Give the backbone structure.
Amino acid sequence: MAKDLSFTCSECGAAYSKWSGQCDACQSWNTISENKALASGPKGKSLGALRGKPIPLIDLDTHEPEPPRTQAGVAELDRVLGGGLVKASALLVGGDPGIGKSTLLLQAAARFARNGLKVIYISGEESTAQVQMRARRLGLEKSPVRLAAETNLRDILTTLEAEKPDLAIIDSIQTMWADHVDSAPGSVSQVRASAHELTTFAKRNGMSVVMVGHVTKDGSIAGPRVVEHMVDTVLYFEGERGHQFRILRAVKNRFGPADEIGVFEMTGKGLAEVKNPSALFLSERGAPAPGSVVFAGIEGTRPMLCEIQALVAPSPHSQPRRSVVGWDGGRLAMILAVLESRCGVPFTGLDVYLNVAGGLRISEPAADLAVAAALVSAREDAAVPSDAVIFGEISLSGALRPVVQTENRLKEAEKLGFTSAITPQQAKQVAVKGINLRQAHDLAAFVEDVFGAR
């Protein structure tokens, strides 16, 4: 019988039945490699007490307590983890090179060690002397964290078996090498096999493991997406090189809410948690200017205010530019089309630039109305009132739809000194003391009310 072969692109994870030089999905060259089967299946006792035998759900103890958690003592990190680190869990942390992943995890390791956990930090990219140098710079040289520099997975598992730590940090999973897999370190097969071995080892031995993963050009963790499915929690560490803000975002969490974020500030002595992100994102906002709008958003369970900036200028080219930073470019095109079709505000022949200040990335549709207000403000050269926050979703018909957690957004705005808010009409009346609420039922009425009759 012929041997079944499968190949996977290391950049985007696309699967193929035969090898080719270029990936059709992401257009990358020489990134397709063969998936090698593991030399043997999992050994040792099963993860389940009955070795895979099914248990009736009705027979399970309804009073089973939640898995124990250990808090790091850093409120932003504990928030993203869902209340703390869960025993025997596997976490994957991704981010751009140089964004601060190793710094964050070294600080977290020191915190967990001070709280009673036995922690081992294993680096495959740096020597122990380099890690110690960073620890001294961060003021962590006296922390009871054990360091190791190794890339051979067999030696790492042997060490973990002997040391029996509560938490192991692997920096990074792309540098690990499993000797039973016939491919180079960093390949799809090696990443998948190493992640599988570490995850199953952690589950069997009651140890938590944190794996660092590099990201591809499109921002996703390099290697097959199956690695993300193996682990319990996937965190992305985001930020712009030109800004001191760093955002730790949970995109998957089996033990807490997904889409929760923690905000940090990069300082000379490492990462410092930001307890009031709204004030920080608005701290550099100057006098009211055309194209500047404050949006009251929700990130996970936390209300957060940020500034949305727009610039509209005549285009010297036949095809006007549409440039977006921190928001979805396709949604910007939709807002421009609705403004032109439903409100008679043309953007033909105009370059449009949109930016979310502070390096924050927004994904919720509630930002539609704030973006539309910034665009019209920039086009008409008319500033939006500086004491107003704006939020709401726009439909293709031009109608405005209410969004969730309106009251929490308004309370956050009132806490930071804003006195008015412009929102869609609410089915249930919401009132917050100190906030003058202005409501509109469609986008045309909003434009006429804020910027005058057109």
User: Anything to note?
Assistant: The chain has a mean pLDDT of 86. The chain has three domains: 1-35, 69-275, 280-451. The chain is about 25% helix and 25% strand.
